[in-house]
Automatic annotation (TrEMBL):
It comes from the Eukaryota. This is Chaperonin 10-like protein. It comes from Sordaria brevicollis. Residues 44-86 form the Alcohol dehydrogenase-like N-terminal domain. Coiled coil: none annotated.
Length: 86
């Protein structure tokens, strides 16, 4: 993770975050660094959440195995997270 940079509109945010991603169907997950979205890039009704806990569910496995090929890759796994709205 890179060092946080000050933001005039809120807390300091790191430039990147770790993400467990599905990059290729039928392959293991890839742990990688991806950019943290900037608050100015959010659309109305979007939230930026600092994830404290994320889980793995069967939907992640189904997507990784290619059962839903209409979902574009790469995709960050785990839609069941919990954290703090920043």
């Amino acid at each position: 993770m890179t060092e946080p940079t000050p933001s005039p509109s809120g807390p300091s945010l790191p430039a990147t975050m770790q993400a467990l991603r599905i990059t290729t169907y039928n392959q293991p997950y890839t742990l990688t660094n991806i950019p943290v979205p900037s608050p100015s890039s959010l659309r109305p009704h979007d939230l930026l959440v600092k994830i404290a806990v994320a889980s793995h569910c069967h939907t992640d496995t189904i997507i990784r195995l290619g059962a839903v090929p209409s979902i574009p890759l790469p995709l960050t796994a785990s839609h069941e997270g919990s954290g703090t709205v920043i």
